[in-house]
Amino acid sequence: MSIRRRLTALAVGGVLVTGCTGTGAPSPSPTAAATPPVSDAKPSGLPAALTGQRPDWKPCEGAGDEWRCATVKVPLDHAEPAGATLPVALIRKEATDREGRIGSLLFNFGGPGASGVEMLPQLAGEYAALGERYDLVGFDPRGVGRSSGVVCRTDAEQAAAEARVDPTPDTPAEEAAYLKDAADFGAGCARRSGTVIPHTTTSATARDLDLIRRVLGDEKLHYFGISYGTQLGGAYAHLFPGNVGRLVLDAVVDPTADATGHARHQTVGFQRALDNYLKSTGQSPAAGTERITRLLAGLDEKPLEAGGRRLTEGLALTGIAVTLYAESGWPLLTEALAAAEAGNGAPLLRLADVYNDRDEQGRYATQSHSQRAISCADSSARPTAAEAKALLPEFRRLSPVFGAFLAWDTAGWCAGWPVAGEARTPEASAPGAAPVLVVGTTGDPATPYEGAERMAEELGEGVGILVTNKGEGHGAYGTSACVTRTVDAYLLDGKVPAYGTTCG
Fold first, then answer.
1. Band (15; pLDDT cuts 50, 70, 90)
2. What was the pLDDT predicted at 21?
3. In 242-284, where does DSSP find H-type helix?
């Protein structure tokens, strides 16, 4: 796998928000404005027209001969199961050992907003051992990709926002531009996807998962969730504890944190990963951090020209962040920082493009649109600009590099969103469920290790089984041989490790 593809896969799994966002109140479309927040109440029984579906598996364009694609219909609103439906796109590679087949293994690679239909074939080599006895199944969650994917702005609008909007505003004019861009983004989502955005909650997707399980013919759900996929897995276990089969949660989101809590966690996590990178290059974390903040301050005053585009402070931050998702990205960071200090912003800009899903023709994927829609549907919290400013001193102490960006992002992500969110974030308590493997990595920047500890605790005693990976990067499976062996033994043979098993 190329460095670009690998970094893209790791970045998609992350939760770091690098879009230009703010608190302005958009003018939503009538459809969006009229739709109340989706209820998390238990839905009534699904109609036979949905539970009796049989996927029509057909060859997938560009995915290889072994892959087949299908679409399953799910309720637009699970509180009205006989009402309008949404298509959920699936991709599957059947188990090679048919006699030893266990069932289907569904994947969610995070984001939120990652397309499992696109990513699973790209990453399937890492799951070759699991593919012997499981049908490997990827899916686009509601509001993502081929499943009525949310779209909020054009490529030209996205490029213009990246170039002109400062995600760490220092002046009233910059703050006003930041807030206006948020208003424009939210209004675009309402215009283009107003019917879908009220229904992109994690709890709704968890209910979709259970319907998919039934349609695939599996008695229990076997599932591998990475990053945001761990939040989805925890929500499923909470809603359907009796249907939990073998669940793996790797690079775990703290299920107890609110928007500000997640931002605080990431401020600590990315600075921790940056410190580890700096130590690996022989620099002291303090001196290396000062060097980077000096570079960023210079870019804030005067962006670097880079092939007809400009490397701004915000894009440089994004380029730095993406390299911290895996140790394999650290050499790229060394080269890009040296180039920027010498006046060449192109390497850091290319890294930012990897995270932002911008190709060489200037086209953007819409993963960040779906990410915003899912995150804002999951929470009713709408921090204000004043509340974000109040966080700045603390967040800057935690990380001179990332603190201001992540403090401002608390206000810039969901404030002014055109649809009200859930009253509470998805819960993960799952008394009575089968054991769930919870894997945390000590150097994970995007979902710090502490989130795994809290997820294991929330799932409940005997349910959440904590596995610790002493290492770097976002996600341990396929990177740590010890973690990979432990997860394979659990998924393939049902061997549950002891709580607190440590690798590395």
1. very low
2. 30
3. 259-280
Task: Please give the distance of CA 494 from its chain centroid, rounded to a whole number.
Answer: 28
Place of tokens 């303090």: 286
Task: Say which CATH architecture domain 1-504 belongs to.
Answer: 3-Layer(aba) Sandwich (3.40)
CA end-to-end span of the chain, whole Å? 24
Q: Name the one residue in this structure whose structure tokens are 């995070």.
A: 110
Q: What φ, ψ does residue 346 adopt, rounded to 5°?
A: -60, -45
Question: The tokens of 439 are what?
Answer: 């894997």
For the annotated catalytic residues, the residue numbers are 227, 444, 474
Map residue 137 onto helix, strand or coil. strand
CB atoms within 10 A of CB 344: 17
pLDDT tens-digit profile of 62-71? 898 999 999 9
Number of H helices, E strands in the chain: 18, 12
- Contact at 8 Å (CB) between 319 and 351? yes
Q: How many Å separate Cα 32 from the centre of its chain?
A: 24
Cβ partners under 8 Å of residue 341, min gap 6: 295
Are the C-beta atoms of residues 500 and 465 closer than 8 Å to each other? Answer: no
Secondary structure (DSSP) of 67-100: EEEEEEEEESSTTSTTS-EEEEEEEEE--S-STT
